[in-house]
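Morning F.,

Quick status update on the modeling queue. The single chain you submitted on Monday has been processed. Sequence for confirmation:
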Amino acid sequence: MSYYDILHVSPNASSAEIKSAYRRLARKLHPDSVSGSEDTALKFAAIAEAYEVLGNHKERAKYDQKLAETTGGGESIFDSSNPHIKRWRQMVYEKRYNDIIDRMIADERLEAMAFQKVVYPLTGFLIGTILTGALRPVLFSRSPSVVGQIAIGALFLASLILLARRLRDGFERYTAYDDNIHDSILDDDEPRFKGYSRYATGGILLFAILVCFGLGLVIGEALPQFSAALPDIFSRQISPEMLLYPPIVAFFVDIMHSIAARIEK
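Structure tokens below.
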């Protein structure tokens, strides 16, 4: 059986027809859609192998040439009844299937890590906004030395750079269309929408920041004892200095998440 027979397409099929046939068969045989029997695994590996060759113009040309040479010139390994060849085919299919599953698991793990790298510092920033509005720290302005102020300023700049990178990665990943066939073979042929537009997402983030800051102010007014107990660290007044601290909180949250991820590995 040739790769064209596996995908149920004609040797003259276009790239779009081959792609559509692969999607249709992959959705039917994917482990998430059907029970993972050995027969299903072999079929799934077979169509994946067939599409990997026929979906590539250069590989398809090489395969067509080999197919033409084997046609009428002896038994093809796809149709051979030799038990050793059959066992070899099964081993190839099993390895192909295992490689596909391992790659899917690795991709899911990387996607989860990428999502966490965006969500964790952003969550830390929002929590830092609430704490800043409630506690109103004045560590920078009341620092006993210039060195302390320089350290806080440098930490703030580093935090801004890190937060900007994380937000950029989040906007690129989760606010755009993606029609890559290998991202999810269970999806329909139409491009799938990953989320809101970048402008809408930016507006939602800004609204969340303002809400968190307002919530922090309310908490600070209800609990004034912090500023009264530690007047050198906290203040009752609202000042521009408060802008320094939410990014710094996000910075430390990102560091803790990175350390935890490395320990988990």
